[in-house]
Structure formats: structure tokens, C-alpha cells
Amino acid sequence: MNAVGKTRRARWRRWAVTSSLTLAVCLYLARNSLLASAGVWLVTDDRMTEPVDCAIVLGGAAETRPFFAASLYQAGWCHRVAYLETVDSPATRDGLVPTHGTLMRAVFADCGIPDQSVVRLSGVVNSTRDEFERIAEFVDRTDTGICAVITSDFHTRRCQRVRDRVLGQNRHRVLILGVPTDGFGPENWWQFRGGVHRYAAEFIKLGRDLLR
Predict the structure, then answer these.
(1) Contact status, residue 189 vs residue 162, Cβ threshold 8 Å
(2) Phi and psi torsions of 28, nearest 5°
(3) Which of 20, 113, 124, 158 shows a CA-CA span of 20 to 30 A to 103?
(4) Which pLDDT tens digit goes with each residue over 5-56?
(5) Rounded to whole angstroms, how far apart are CA atoms 107 and 73?
(6) Measuring CA to CA, how many Å separate 171 from each of 68, 69, 147?
(7) What phi and psi, each to the nearest 5 degrees, are found at residue 120?
(8) What angle do CA 183, 198, 175 make, to 5 degrees?
(9) What Å distances lie between residue 175 and 15, 16, 54, CA to CA?
(10) What is the dihedral of CA 92, 96, 99, 102, to 10 degrees?
């Protein structure tokens, strides 16, 4: 390589290193804003403008989701509440914690919802797609009007995608409502261990879904 070629190569390396360092510094300085924007992007629930027939609680987050559904019922925004039975965890099989269905019914009872207003959807679910397949069957099989699916706020974007894919033309009959998570939210999730775990897992699952 001649002198001119070596000089150009050296300049290119210096430019590449300088640009990489500059980008790294900019990303570091803007990390809070970028992470907050990513968290907010996950939250895209539907707007409920009138009462619905049924509020369906997805599995998980028992400390928030069923209570939100119960508040909708008590305020007259839904006529019934429903839940899905999830696959038993090792702790459930060992008798250390109650089943998801038992927990849901206990919460609804404590919130004053009569047993005849509580519906258990058929089947046992192990994924978001399983849940929406059971919801689709429920909507098709029963004389059910508009339903509201209750999930965590960071889970709403992926739920909308799965709903649209599974329910197709019936997707307008199922709204997605997000419930805030106790302790952290889309604007500060990376500052908490639980937030990093849940949001990172959601980004990974959504990424897999987008690639399908």
C-alpha cells in the first residue's frame, strides 16, 4: 500500500472511531428519553366509550388486572367479568399457591361481584395466543356483545396484534384495556428490576411476533 492509501485508511479509522464514540456518548446521554419512548410505545390500549358486555381478565398480574375489571363492573362499565384458567405452575401443583381461577374468583368475591356475574372461559391457556383463541370461541359461541380484555399496559400492543390475527373480522368486538403496573410504568421501567424483567421480556416477545 502506498503512502496515500495508508493516509486515507488512517483517516477512515479515526473518523470511524470518533463517530462511534460520539454516537455512544449521545445514546448514553439520551438513554432515559429513549427508554421512556420505547416503554410508551408499548402502551396502545383501546378507548372504551360505552359499557361493554364482559370484561375478560388475562392471566397474570393478579394484583392489578382483576381489581380493574371489578372496578369496571362496580361502576357499571361492564355487565359481567370473566377469566381464563392458566396452566398450573410448579408452586400451584405443590399446593403452595392457589390456581389462577381460584384467585380470580376470590378477588371478584371480595370486590362484591355476585357469582352469577363471573364467567370462566373454557379451556386452559399457556400463552397470549391461547387466550385469544379461547376469547374468539367465547365471542362466537355465546350471545356476547362487545368485550374488554384486561391486561397490563405494557402488554397492550402485542395483545392488539394477536387479537387482530386471531379474531379477524370479529376484532372490533374485543377491546384491549391496559392497567398500570404497581411500582413502575413506561416512563421509568428500566430503573426497577421488575420493570427491566417485564419490559425486556415483552420487547423480546413482540419482536418475535413482528418477525412472523
Answers:
(1) no
(2) -65, -45
(3) 158
(4) 556 665 666 555 554 555 554 444 446 788 899 999 999 989 889 999 999 9
(5) 13
(6) 22, 20, 10
(7) -105, 120
(8) 90
(9) 51, 49, 10
(10) 170
